[in-house]
Amino acid sequence: MHFTKMHGLGNDYLYYYGELKNAAVLSQKLSDRHFGIGSDGIITISPSRTADFKMRIFNADGSEAMMCGNGIRCVGKYVFDKGYTDRKKLIIETLSGHRELTLRTIGNKVTEVTVDMGKCIVYKPVLLATTYGKVMVTPVMVGNPHAVAFVENITDAPMDTMGKELEHHPYFKNGVNAEFVQVIDRNTIKMRVWERGSGITMACGTGACASVAAAVRANLCDKDQEITVCLDGGRLNIKVLSDGTAMMTGPAETICECEVEEK
Ligand SMILES: N[C@H](CCC[C@H](N)C(=O)O)C(=O)O
């Protein structure tokens, strides 16, 4: 079974062209960083009846998610670099709807992708009780669920305690991705994330959009402006428009090709 390991700012997935009937189990197995290849999950790419291609994403715990920001940029790179298309404007079908990609290349390889991530739905902030104390979060839907908490200093963000507990907090019946955000200025934030189904990752594209949308709603950042989101794995540029649409621009990289023995 052939996989291509790719990453967006260190948020790494195993990409497979075609449908995988046992994707959930395979994601659990192959994501293991010792007994598997090591990744934050699996992403499958296949033809679509309604778009150029279709993607599905499975977290490291085998759960299927609706959307993946870093992943969809790599999907654009995958289909262009491997010759499935020569177009630089693509529509990708996801479980949370169609997303439009604009690919940028150097030579015949994609290096950077801009994605119309659709509308971010920002809800009223809510004070949640956790084992580690109360925390005010702003729920944001970016096709998948996020809980954004603003902190004074990102280096003190309680990732392994509060972040881990928020993932399965009863307030979010389907679980949630938890982001901790330090606002640097009106055009710059720092963000760390505990992802639903994968734990702490180096970056989260949908989470970066959710974080900017929450900061704009709180009047901490400016809408219609490029906001730099500084993540463990690098920087994303996010612009949230007046209608709530988030535009995300960032890199996509291929690490290696992998052959997995079918047992
Ligand atoms: N863990 C997420 C899916 C991956 C999202 C993230 N890796 C991104 O880049 O958006 C969820 O369960 O909703």
UniProtKB/TrEMBL annotation:
Pfam families tied to this protein? DAP_epimerase
| BP GO annotations | lysine biosynthetic process via diaminopimelate
Q: Which SUPFAM superfamilies match?
A: Diaminopimelate epimerase-like
User: What Gene Ontology molecular function terms does this protein carry?
Assistant: diaminopimelate epimerase activity
* GO CC annotations, alphabetized: cytosol
Report the EC number(s), separated by commas if there are several: 5.1.1.7
- Positions binding substrate in this chain are N11, N59, G69, N70, N144, N177, E195, R196, G205, T206
Tell me where it resides.
Cytoplasm
Annotated catalysed reactions: (2S,6S)-2,6-diaminopimelate = meso-2,6-diaminopimelate
Identify the pathway: Amino-acid biosynthesis; L-lysine biosynthesis via DAP pathway; DL-2,6-diaminopimelate from LL-2,6-diaminopimelate: step 1/1
What PANTHER family has UniProt attached to this entry?
DIAMINOPIMELATE EPIMERASE, DIAMINOPIMELATE EPIMERASE, CHLOROPLASTIC
Physiological role: Catalyzes the stereoinversion of LL-2,6-diaminopimelate (L,L-DAP) to meso-diaminopimelate (meso-DAP), a precursor of L-lysine and an essential component of the bacterial peptidoglycan.
What is the name attached to this protein's record?
A: Diaminopimelate epimerase
The organism is: Zongyangia hominis
